[in-house]
Amino acid sequence: MTIKAIDLFSGCGGVSCGLSQAGFTVKAAVEIEKDAATTYLNYPPLANVAVLQKDICKVSGKELLRAAKIHRNEIYLLAGCPPCQNFSMQNPNNKKKSETERKKLLFEFLRIIEEVYPPFILMENVPGITTKFNANILNEFIERLENVKGDISKKYFVLKDVLNSADFGVPQSRKRFVLHAVRMDIYERLQTLGQTFQLPQPTHKKDGENGLKPWITVKEAIGDLPKLSAGQTYDGKKEVYNHKCANLSDENLARMKYIRSHGGSRNSLPESMVLDCHKKKNEYGQVFSGHQDVYGIMDPNKPSPTMTGGCLCYSKGRYGHYSQNRAISIREAARLQTFPDDFIFSDSLTKSALQIGNAVPVKLVEASGTEILKSIKKIKRK
Fold it and tell me: Domain boundaries in the chain?
C-alpha cells in the first residue's frame, strides 16, 4: 500500500526522512535553498522525490499536486514546517517586525492548504508560536482551518501541543509545536470506523516512568564514534560519513579544558579567562553575561541541548564534546537530530550546521507520521 506525502519548506530533508521511516512515500517537496535541496536528494530514499527548488510564494496547489502525481481526491499527507525564525522568542529582531511580515510564510502554507484541501496535515514549529506575542497569528491560522463556512470537506479537526523531542526517542531536549489536522469529512469516517485521531504518544520519559523507556543520552547516541581532535576529519578504515569538527584556538582549547574539569559550564572560568563580551554591564551596572550555555560541555548522561544553526561551533552553545577537547562533529550533530548514518551532508561545517540545526528531529516526525498513518490505513482499507 503506497501512501503519499508532500513536504513544504523541506530544508535538507528532516521531515521527509522521518515520514519515509514511518512508511510514507514522499512524492514532492518545496525548498528554495539550493544547498539544502542538494543534500535532500543525496539521501537514497528521497532521490526520486520531485523537489521544486523555488520560492513557496510562487508555487500553486495545482503545480504541487502535478509534481507529486497526486489527484485531488487521493488520501495523502501534506506536511509543512514554515521557517520558525519569525516566531522564535530568541530572535530579538522579531519585535521590530509587523504581524503581516512575521506570518507571511505560515500563511503561504495556509494558502496551499486552501487551494488543495488535503485530507491530512502535519505542521511543526518552535514553541514560541504559541506565545502571547504570536497568539493572533496562530489563532487566525487555526480558525481558518477549523471554521471554513459551508462544505464540510473544507473544514478541519485540529489537534496541537508542544512536545519534547526527548519523549520520542530523540537524544536531545528540544521542544516543538506539533499540529495534526484531518479534514472533517475524513474525520467523521474515522469516527464511524472507531479510529482515534491523535497526536503522537510518548515512547520515552526522563527516568523511564510509567513503563516508558528512559530518555536517550548523548553518550548512548554518539559514544561509539571514532575519536577526533579539534579541526580533524575522520579518515580511518571504518566507514563514517561527515565525522568532521571545527578547529579551536589555543585560548578556547584552554577554556574548554578548564570548564571540563570544573563542572561543564563557562561560569566556572576564572576572571582571566572570561571573554570581554561576557563582562559587559547593563544599564543598572549589573554584568550582562549573555547566553549561559555558550562554551559549555555536554552532559554525557542527559539528552543534548537543542541543536541550532550554530551547533558545530563551541562558542555558540553547549556544544563541547563530553569527553574530547573539541566541538561536536557533523555526524554527531546529525545523530543528535536522529538522522540515519547514511544521510550525508556537505563537508562544509557552516552549511551542515545550518541544515542540521534547522531540521525537525527525524524521530519526532516519524512519531507523527506513524500516528497519522494509522488513520490513513484505516480509511484506505474501507
Answer: 4-211+361-381
Q: Hey, which bits of 184-242 come out as E strands?
A: 204-205, 213-214
Q: Which of 90, 126, 92 is nearest to 106 (CA)?
A: 126
- In degrees rounded to 5, what are phi and psi of residue 281? -110, 150
With vertex at residue 307, the alpha carbon angle to CA 80 and CA 374, rounded to the nearest 5 degrees, is 40
Longest CA–CA separation in the chain, Å: 71
User: Residue for cell digits 541550532?
Assistant: 308
> In this structure, is the dihedral angle defined by the CA atoms of residues 166, 170, 175 and 176, taken in order, positive or negative?
negative
Beta bridge pairs of residue 211: none
Written as nine digits, the cell of 363 is 524521530
Q: Which amino acid is at 225?
A: L
Give the contacts of 146 (CB within 8 A, at least 6 positions apart): 155, 156, 157, 158
pLDDT tier at 303, thresholds 50, 70, 90 = very high
> In a 3-state reduction of DSSP, which class is residue 80?
strand
Cα–Cα distances in angstroms (integers) from residue 80 to residues 242, 297, 323, 343, in the given order: 27, 33, 37, 21
Give catalytic residues, as residue numbers: 84
Mean pLDDT to the nearest integer, 278-284: 50
- Give mean pLDDT, residues 157-177: 97
pTM: 0.91
Quote the mean pLDDT of the chain: 90
Q: How many CB atoms lie within 10 A of CB 155?
A: 19
Region 78-91: mean pLDDT is 76
CATH H-level superfamily of 4-211+361-381: Vaccinia Virus protein VP39 (3.40.50.150)
Please report, in angstroms and rounded to a whole number, the separation of the first and last CA atoms in the chain: 13
Q: Which helix (H) or strand (E) holds 52?
A: strand 50-52
pLDDT tens by residue, 233-277: 999 888 999 999 999 999 888 888 887 877 756 676 766 566 555
In sequence order, what DSSP letters do the residues of 1-40 get, joined into one string?
---EEEEES-TTSHHHHHHHHHT-EEEEEE---HHHHHHH
Residue whose C-alpha cell reads 485530507 in the numeric block:
119
Q: Packing angle between helix 362-381 and helix 14-22, nearest 10 degrees?
A: 40
* Angle at alpha carbon of residue 369, lines to 167 and 171, rounded to 5°: 30
| DSSP code of residue 274 | S
What cell numbers appear for 279 in the block? 563582562
pLDDT of amino acid 287: 41
